[in-house]
Known about the structure:
By secondary structure, the chain is of the alpha+beta class. It contains 16 helices and 12 strands. The strands form 3 sheets. The chain has a 7-stranded antiparallel β-sheet with strand order 9-6-8-7-11-12-10, with helices on both faces. A 3-stranded antiparallel β-sheet has the order 3-2-4, covered by helices on one side. A two-stranded antiparallel sheet has the order 1-5.
Amino acid sequence: MTWAALDQALAARGWRTPFRGPFSGAVATVGGTMAQHAVSHGTGAHGISAASVTALDVVLADGSLLRTGAPLVGGPPFERHCGPDLTGLFLGDCGAFGIKARISLRLLRAQADHAALSFGFDSWEALHAGMRAAALENVDDTHFGLDASMVRGQLRRPRGIRDTLGIARRIWRTTPGVRAPLSQLARMALAGERGMGGWPYLVHYIVEGGSRREADARAGRLRKALGAHGREIGNTIPTVVRSQPFERMFHVLGPAGERWVPVHGLLPHSRVAAFHADLERLLANHAETMRGQGVWIGTLVECVGSGGFMVELGLYWPDAASAYHRAVVDTATMAQLPLHAPNPVLHDWIAALRLELIALYRSHGAVQFQLGKVYPYASAMDQPGLRVVRALKAALDPQRRMNPGVLGL
Length: 409
Ligand SMILES: Cc1cc2nc3c(=O)[nH]c(=O)nc-3n(C[C@H](O)[C@H](O)[C@H](O)COP(=O)(O)OP(=O)(O)OC[C@H]3O[C@@H](n4cnc5c(N)ncnc54)[C@H](O)[C@@H]3O)c2cc1C
């Protein structure tokens, strides 16, 4: 079950899940996401993917079925907490502890109205201060910030007339009222790309409300928080994202057909400035190779709760597309993109850069989601924690049949 399919089925009944899925929800499954943790749609108000789960049915390595949450004591899957949180044990395990066969999620009524707003910031410090202040208000549903490279690379791709009309239709459908959709489209046409230009950092917020008044009141609180650090600009990007949360998967390649790999970390706010200074130094050391080889980096940021600031760096480099890209990118998009020859030397250089960046994140106290086999887990744990996790793995999967090697177990 993909997030897009779930969202569509619930929307037809006037419902939604609190966390609505990652941006990749057109192809990402609920099971895969719960196995790894994810953020994005709904994270502003409702936290990461795991926070929306009430219960799980997990198939263990010996074939038995473990039920967590209220079903553990014979109830329906309406409540997660009943003694130690067994549900949480299987969330973010990357499949190391068992296979999630059934996932129960909280439901909310879909809100009738919304507001979309965007702000430009002239420095990293201003972006961080503005987003931190906005997170403390706790009134948005979804938000994300981008640097100018990311905007140039990922959002300003040429769209065909059919795509543009499709977006306009969806905005019409998802903006309540008779005149509101028209004025929204007119505002977007006027602001267009110019409204976004010139800012090194942009941030976009989607606010939900039971009525226009409620959405506007919430947007007003955000305006005050963000306006102390940046300037409001045209809201084209969040309006399009609200109308179409789960885009086609063209973002897995760069705008000129480059390969892309993300590396991220969730930093405590207190370490964001020092992390950024060290990041600039690290990238300055590699600037010559990057320039010479056509490597570039775009940044995506999100606040997670009021304590954490997610910084995701997208690394782009010229290299041949893989079978994965041909499977998920539609053929029309693929046909328009330039082809690159395989570049194994640069591929390895990017892998090494990614490890260097992960070490930098960790040196500033960052945690990562989607740990898999790239981000250190077992090797980075303190001894009591590692003892517990190893004992759990030994009890649940003594023959190491579940996703061997993941989490370093
Ligand atoms: C363009 C793009 C945009 C993205 N945007 C976001 C974003 O906004 N936010 C974000 O957090 N991430 C994002 N991601 C990362 C990724 O899409 C998400 O982590 C997504 O949730 C992964 O889901 P999946 O179904 O593809 O998982 P998979 O990659 O198929 O699986 C992930 C892991 O979970 C295990 N697994 C899968 N299903 C189960 C199950 N039922 N039980 C136990 N283990 C299981 C698999 O073995 C694997 O180890 C993005 C990725 C791309 C390519």
